[in-house]
Predict the 3D structure of the following.
Amino acid sequence: MSLGLNALLEPGMMVRHPQEPDWGLGQVQSNIGNRITVNFEHRGKVVIDGREIALTRIFDL
């Protein structure tokens, strides 16, 4: 996923952090500008800088 595709993430979508697999599955809470707030099952709520991290969208659960 390119960093530009982070802009397509919407609240409710499921994602993973590519460098933090132990955080588990995350649900996008908001995506404003380059700040993506995600609630991860094993880490809690984290604000991701979309310019630095390309989150991986999960389609199949």
About this structure: Residues 24 and 30 are 18 Å apart (CA to CA). The chain is about 0% helix and 40% strand.
